[in-house]
Amino acid sequence: MTSEKLDQLAINTIRTLTIDAVQQANSGHPGAAMALAPLVYVLWNRIMRFDPKDPIWPNRDRFVLSNGHASMLLWSLLYLTGTRAVNAEYESLGKPSVTIDDIRRFRQLDSKAPGHPEYHWVSGVETTTGPLGQGIATSVGMAIARKWLASRYNRPGFDIFDYDIYAVCGDGCLMEGVAAEAASLAGHLGLDNLCWIYDNNHITIEGNTCITFTEDVTARFLGYQWNVLRVGDANDLERIEDALTIFRKTRGRPTLIILDSHIGYGSPHKIDTPAIHGEPLGEEEVRLTKRAYGWPEDAKFLVPDEVPRRFDAGIGARGAEARRQWEKLFAAYHTQFAELAREIDQMQRRALPAGWDRNLPSFPADPEGLAGRVASGRVLNVLAQNIPWLMGGSADLGPSNKTLLTFPEAGDFEAASPGGRNLHFGVREHAMAAIVNGLALSKVRAFGATYLIFSDYARPAIRLSALMELPAVWVFTHDAMGDGEDGPTHQPVEHLISMRAIPGLVVLRPADANEVVEAYRYILELGHQPAVIALSRQPLPTFDRRKYASAAGVARGAYIMADATDGAPEIILIASGSEVALVVEAHEKLTSQGIRCRIVSMPSWDIFERQPQSYRDEVLPPGLHARIAVEQGSVLGWERYVGAAGRIVGMKTFGASAPLKELQRKFGFEPERVVEVAMEVLGRNERKSR
């Protein structure tokens, strides 16, 4: 069989596996995969440096399928290349990542061929995709990471990191706002290691893109300072390879390849129609399409023996040799640059360097205190000096979020200074969050920051960080009414509960500067979970820890900060963040009236819920029903801690524009109000404060 015929056989195998899997599942998106099979064949078998036997080799090229509904492209590739499975500890399991049985069970429970690519579930998936635009935005983070890694670790004769990032996207991806944000920043940064391939098939679910998407994509990306290439026929393997080769030679700009394709290529009746996008072809159309490919019409899940051999001879041999040469190079690098090599080893395992938490500040008692954001900035600057691969930035709010790394070696990440560790995202919260995910997927420890209110703009990518189990850090300041005069547009109400509702996302709201320290200590040790740290704009008292319990209690999510001194408590005051100082004042007033009162600082529901039941019962005794929760946020959710007999002092409306003290008075966040509510809960309205 000629080389050209082998190429076509492999391409049609990808197409027919897709058709059969979607048909058997009676669910899925066959059209894009049928159109793009030639592209991914050329990219994987002729271009990419990827070793199927070691899919987490550090210097591999990355492949991102941003139009994740075409996931059968990826499952077919992983199966046909014999990509091996790796576990969460980065150990090879000695078995295939995706089997033919997984493909037969496409979109079924526990299949390694789910409906969309899922990182951590299937080895060989570089990032979870499905929400359109997320994949290409995340790929920008991967490209930034590679630039930074090369700047820090490469040495003359030792190109330890020189991989490229390829991302396939569709019309929907380019319509999403996050794509515009990410593309703009990528162009500004001159990320010439990044290539997006745009499947220009002119079809979305509602019809031809002429009804919604008529912009000049070429002009748009030239305006973003990208190199733009066009391949007019998605079946022309040589032109596809030529375009990818030009990308690899281009310097100073990312590349967009516009690939003109026909969705559902080969289908006699559904090609170039929305009907082929998101539903099976139907048995008769399957037979007709296979006939058009010259394929046995009644064969299902047919994989000719020549096809895996073709991939073995291509990406298998090329990838294995590239990895062997890299490992040889890295062994020599280890000898000459032992400390840098040690950093790379630790980073790849998501480990922390020895002494990573040394010199963390301990803040003395101070009734004036510090803003949570100020304490956070001081902690971040210590941590970043101890952890060389900790980097991040803010969506144009660095001076306000206090996330700027100010030590002399930090620097700014820009095209001319890719070793900088301050990332400037501009006013692009959504892209920022996706880029942070891309950095985390590259094993860099990354943080992104903005005001808590603007977490709304970043939420889709934050959700994906939790779904992917990435140790991303989200620093959100101005966490309540501290924004005062800016008014309800800038005062978060529902945002804390919104973050707490995301499975796997750790949310911490520290009460003072020392709780901030302990919150970061907890967060940095998370290897497979993202975390939000919500911080105050305004100064908070720094508590005297000789009088109140150690802030180390943060590591348990909630802890008894102060207790009744003369017997079991009659009532428990629970609070987070800035409201802990409020309940401390209320505690003093109640104690002066002879009421036995306990204060529980609860910075994190998530962490507290993971504690043993015995500890949770110790902090919140089941038999003690007199409880009050105080938080400048939505009351939703606090009922689980106060119960039917307790009360919640929180927000049931939006805020208002006024100085903070006036807002606190208006909405009842004053110690006198907490005391009043406590009396009501205890049924002691007759006992008034004197």
Describe this structure as you would to a colleague.
The structure is a single chain. By secondary structure, the chain is of the alpha/beta class. It has 24 helices and 22 strands. Strands 12-11-13-14-16-15 form a 6-stranded parallel beta sheet, with helices on both faces. A 5-stranded parallel beta sheet has the order 1-4-5-9-8, sandwiched between helices. A 5-stranded mixed beta sheet has the order 18-20-19-21-22. Helix 16 links the parallel strand 13 (445-451) and strand 14. Helix 1 crosses helix 11 (306-336) and helix 11 packs across helix 12 (338-348). The protein is elongated.
Number of DSSP E strands = 22
The DSSP helix count reads 24
Helix vs. strand class: alpha/beta
Rg, Cα atoms, Å: 28 Å
Helix content: 40-55%
Q: Which shape, going by the Cα principal axes? A: elongated
Largest sheet: 6 strands, parallel
Q: Could you list the spans in which at least 5 consecutive residues all have pLDDT below 50?
A: 686-690
Can you list the strand order of the major beta sheet? 12-11-13-14-16-15
* Mean pLDDT figure: 97
Terminal Cα span: 98 Å
Strand content: 15-25%
